[in-house]
């Protein structure tokens, strides 16, 4: 699972391949924090390289239930990574 979206970096090399590195889901506060890693290409990612750039995506309480409520988790086979990619795709201002 990954996203493809081109982004310039301060290092002069664009990244185009993004993966969810990790996330924190807080059901009490209704927020999620998703850490994304950006790589120039999929093949570089597959070489187990460190990401060239990392960003954090915050899903606040206003958007939390749209993605991380239990019904959505059940619909996605309880896979929070699928949900994270869905949220980032829908609100692509994050990337």
Polypeptide structure, described:
The chain is an alpha+beta fold. It has one domain. Helix content is 32%, strand content 35%. The protein has four helices and four strands, in the order E-E-E-H-E-H-H-H. It has helices at 42-46, 61-68, 70-75, 80-90; strands spanning 3-7, 15-26, 31-39, 53-59. Strands 1-2-3-4 form a four-stranded antiparallel sheet. The longest helix has 11 residues, at 80-90.
Write the layout of secondary structure elements.
Layout: E1 3-7, E2 15-26, E3 31-39, H1 42-46, E4 53-59, H2 61-68, H3 70-75, H4 80-90
Return the structural class. alpha+beta
pLDDT averaged residue by residue: 90
Helix content: 25-40%
- Spatial shape: elongated
Query: In percent, how much strand structure appears in the residues?
Result: 25-35%
Multimer state: single chain
Summarize the helix and strand pattern as letters. EEEHEHHH
Helical region count?
A: 4
Structural domain tally: 1
Describe the sheet with the most strands. 4 strands, antiparallel
Q: What is the topology, as strand order, of the major beta sheet?
A: 1-2-3-4
- Low-confidence segments, given as residue ranges, are none
Instruction: List how many beta strands DSSP finds.
Output: 4
Q: Could you tell me how far the N terminus lies from the C terminus, measured between alpha carbons in angstroms?
A: 16 Å
